[in-house]
Amino acid sequence: xxYKGLKQYVDQLRELDELVEINxxxxxxxxxxxxxxxxxxxxxxxxxxxxxxxxxxxxINLFASDERMSMAIGRTNLDEAANEIEKLFRQFTMPAGxxxxxxxxxxxxxxxxxxxxxxxxxxxxxxxxxxxxxxLDTFPILKCWPHDGGRFITLPIVHTRHPDTGEVNxxxxxxxxxxxxxxxxxxxxxxxxxxxxxxxxxxxxxxxxSVVLGGDPVYTYTATAPLPEGIDEYIxxxxxxRKKVKLxxxxxxxxxxxxxxxxxxxxxxxxxxxxxxxxxFGDHTGFYSLADWYPAFHITCITHRQDAIYPAxxxxxxxxxxxxxxxxxxKLFLPPIKLTLLPEIIDLHMPVEGVAHNLVLVKIRxxxxxxxxxxxxxxxxxGQMMFSKFIVVVSDDVDLKDYKAVADxxxxxxxxxxxxxxxxxxxxxxxxxxxxFSFGGKMGIDATxxxxxxxxxxxxxxxxxxxxxxxxxxxKDKIRLKMPFADMPLVFAAISKExxxxxxxxxxxYDVTGLILIVVDSTVDLDDKRILLWQALSNTDPDRDIKExxxxxxxxxxxxxxxxxxxxxxxxxxxVSADETIERVDKILKLLDHGGIIPSPSARLKRMDFGxxxxxxxxxx
Length: 621
What we know:
The protein is α+β, with helices and mostly antiparallel strands. Strands 5, 6, 7, 8, 9, 10, 11, 14 and 19 form a 9-stranded antiparallel β-sheet that branches. The protein has a 5-stranded mixed β-sheet with strand order 21-22-23-25-24, with helices on both faces. A 5-stranded mixed β-sheet has the order 26-27-28-30-29. Helix 8 (217-224) packs across helix 9.
């Protein structure tokens, strides 16, 4: 169902017992984030804070369950929406040879046309209150983590328009508060907002920008969706909610926004101005994204509805709320990929530990030799899939969410010389592992069952755990070892570079063929498989950090902060709460008397904090 603003959605969450209302004051500076982190990692409910020190209540964890994510996009479940999208795409991609076949496409075209947003010639609900002397301190804006550069608006829907084509975009780019009327505008070089900015810069004119907070929660989802440039996000929103979005003209610029939004922040970016220093920010990678120069957004007017609720989210060490947003994207965007690019794809999964762009698992219906590699090459060049760092392709009998089964297929079906591809290409700007900003190594693994023409020497060979572990005897007092699966030669080794370098591991006698050794820092908990996978994917550049020795693969997934690493970029620190914040929230939870909530995740991860703030400085003379 379509929602007429956040209050209606929050009221329904309350009815369904999917909401916790907190009437004690919890500070938007650091405390709300720590509390929300505990709830999201406990599979907890959405949180509504009624006392925020401002006129506005704050809601967080809106999307952090399958039920709430489905509700947010106006459906009973994600499969329902995905099936409808697939049906529509099948209709458009079927050959339309004759007049009757073409006529059969008209209902689908008519349906899409009915979801095109409509501009209305009156003020909207979002303009019940108009503030021409704007002050961002009116809102309970979060400072999420201790080393953040300041307070950030974390769920902004940023509206821009191309000055020449008139194409509009609604994207999600975090906004750091610079002062009461100014924020940073953190759009990455690959994003549509940044492309629009460059076009306005060429024209030498100020760029109008309007930021929406709240409204129907489907608006927030579609702002994150990987739509091709030039496709209006509100068409997708209308399709999902089964009702077109009504747009109203802003008060101080000529952009249009949903009339049922909760809050609208209007203004402009001046391309002729010097950029502002923005960040650091505890990001969805689980590490701080470091400070850099970004454009300044100047606020000219703020409008809001009478019953407005301020929406927020936090990101950090996975899983976080964005994991459920990513799951929705997997479901909804698989049909277009399958029907327009790679029809052999059956399923696609991005594990939470891969933070959206580090790992993509793909299941295909294989019918000819080389098909696995074909899929890998295609995906590395397909839209936002171009940012993927690791892609693994398996055959149609594998459950992609069974990571042991995926690992078993890698060992059973992979030949080092023929089935592993290491290349270079664009990376997400937040990837910190590469020697170069937004460009580095990528790895594709074809773990499909092989045809006779693809026959090679599989990675795995028969082995005994005792024989495998004996390889590491020369370093037995300097490293810790873990085999997560007893029946396959996958080993994690934890080292401290003060006593053991990665090069020491390369000099061992690897007489057990088919070993995969992943080396992590001594601070990593070897018993936590999710943290191990997150660290391995985050800290590895496939082109630089993966070595092959005698048929075994050795991977350096340590932090590159020791002088021996010879790493020439800043390395970000892990995102965790400060001790004093943890202690304060412990007391708040006792007051709230809420059961089933885990202790602070940050307390458990503290040993992985290298100190030194958001950026870990190398000890280089």
